[in-house]
Design goal:
Layout (H helix, E strand, L loop, with lengths): L10 E9 L6 H10 L5 E3 L10 E4 L12 H16 L12 E5 L33 H9 L6 E2 L7 H14 L5 E8 L3 H10 L24 E2 L1 E9 H6 L6 E10 L12 H14 L8 E3 L6 H15 L7 E3 L2 H4 L6 H15 L1 E2 L22 E2 L4 E8 L3 E9 L23
Parallel strand pairs: 3-7, 4-5, 4-6, 10-11, 10-14
Antiparallel strand pairs: 1-8, 1-9, 2-3, 6-8, 9-15, 12-13, 14-15
Helix pairs in contact: 4-10, 7-8
Length: 426
């Protein structure tokens, strides 16, 4: 079967699955975030840390099979929820036109403890060779649903799942598929924890509830976390033909690189500033039309500085009307899965017209000249939103979403008039 030509048809989100440290499904996670619930706790049982306590944001979903990587469990839960949310009818969908794009993972390195050729010592343990390669999780979930469209998996640090999302968008635009399961997730890996500790990037706060302080003068580093965000995305025509409910349109997505340093960022933030500008241009949006930004917001000195400067440079005088959230203050940093988890939060914020808070923001950094919703969220009926990811290796990603206001095929504000304007409250 030949691929279809490029068609500039809108790509829409029709299903969302979300698993986080504050909820094991989409709606419980979202309601907890609205309340400002912090899912960070002290953990002393992370392998190879010899009982040392660190702050971590864990998802209370254990693997059902001994030895199976937790990231698989998290993504399977999120994928199942996204598929159910999108009301996929497997008897009518064309699986050869159904893609799967899920981020790469660290992989199972249990085999390093085995002698060459040694049989697995525990037959009940999940086979390490089925989860060793970075693309193993993407392959497993695609196989579970028998998806025969393009299968894509990216390992680009904490931009991985957002890039996987955009790669699926591109595959649909290029005519390789009509619909895709896209996004990703991650679980806490001892090697990552050890590496970040050596870099002194992790927060050394002793109180887990206040450990992550994005954009605050007293920020002390990020908190390791885990979670998963999976989406069903599809061509608008495909969605309408099957009567799908629509969350949002993917207005634009862009990627750039910082040719600077593996772990360091350019303090002048020129690349991130340009990324935001070309993403807005690709979406056909002016700066004043963005109502909400979900920042990368790690709570590290350099990441926050770069984001604060770029947001100020691009949005300038418009900042009085823009809400900015750093939801890692509640969810921790899900590393490879962070971008997709936070894009899901962005879409839900857009659906309900509510911008979630940035917790622990009690002493604003002088460079933080925007409203980051300290300690409490706010009703904000925004139509356009921006999600940013800033990753090690210089990977910079931005996604712009447009809210879907069609009452028949999407979510509409109760006070939305027929001409698309908001009616004034009585």
């Amino acid at each position: 079967m030949s691929s279809r030509p490029y068609i500039p048809e809108p790509i829409v989100i029709t299903g969302i699955g979300l698993v986080t440290a504050v909820g094991c499904d989409r709606e419980s996670s979202w309601q907890a975030l609205r309340r400002g619930q912090v899912g960070i706790q002290l953990a002393s049982d992370i392998e190879d840390l010899r009982g040392e306590e660190i702050c971590a944001a864990r998802v209370p979903l254990p693997s059902t099979v001994p030895g199976r990587l937790k990231a698989f469990t998290l993504c399977e839960h999120a994928a199942a929820e996204a598929v159910a949310d999108a009301a996929i009818d497997w008897d009518s969908v064309d699986r050869t036109r159904f893609g799967c794009s899920i981020n790469g993972i660290m992989g199972d390195y249990h085999f390093k403890r085995l002698e060459c050729g040694q049989a697995e010592e525990d037959a009940a343990r999940f086979p390490w060779w089925q989860q060793m390669l970075p693309n193993s999780m993407c392959a497993a979930i695609a196989n579970q649903y028998r998806l025969e469209g393009p299968r894509l998996s990216h390992s680009t640090a904490c931009a991985s799942s957002l890039i996987s999302f955009l790669t699926a968008v591109r595959a649909i635009r290029d005519g390789q598929c009509d619909i895709a399961l896209a996004g990703g997730g991650d679980a806490i890996d001892p090697l990552f924890v050890a590496g970040f500790r050596q870099m002194r990037a992790l927060s050394d706060e002793v109180d887990p509830q206040t450990a992550c302080r994005p954009f605050d003068r007293n920020r002390r580093g990020f908190v390791i976390g885990e979670g998963a965000g999976l989406f069903i995305i599809e061509r608008l025509g495909h969605a309408l033909r099957r009567g799908a409910r629509i969350y949002a349109e993917v207005a634009a997505g862009r990627m750039l690189a910082e040719a600077h340093h593996v772990t360091g960022l350019d303090a002048e933030s020129e690349s991130l500033t340009r990324l935001i500008e070309i993403t807005l241009d690709g979406a056909g949006l002016a700066a004043h039309e963005i109502g909400y930004i979900n920042a990368h917001g790690t709570g590290t000195q350099q990441n926050d500085l770069v984001e604060m400067r770029s947001i100020r440079r691009v949005f300038g005088e418009c900042l009085d009307t823009i809400c900015v959230s750093a939801t890692k203050s509640m969810l921790g940093h899900a590393i490879n899965g962070a971008g997709a988890v936070e894009l899901a939060v962005t879409a839900l914020a857009m659906r309900d017209g509510f911008a979630p808070p940035t917790m622990n923001h009690t002493d604003p950094d002088p460079e933080c000249v925007f409203d980051c919703l300290p300690l409490s969220g706010r009703i904000n009926h925004f139509q356009h939103a921006l999600k940013l990811s800033v990753a090690f290796g210089g990977h910079l990603v931005a996604v712009a979403l447009n809210r879907w206001n069609d009452a028949q095929h999407g979510f509409a504000y109760p006070n939305l008039a027929a001409d698309g304007t908001l009616r004034k409250a009585a």
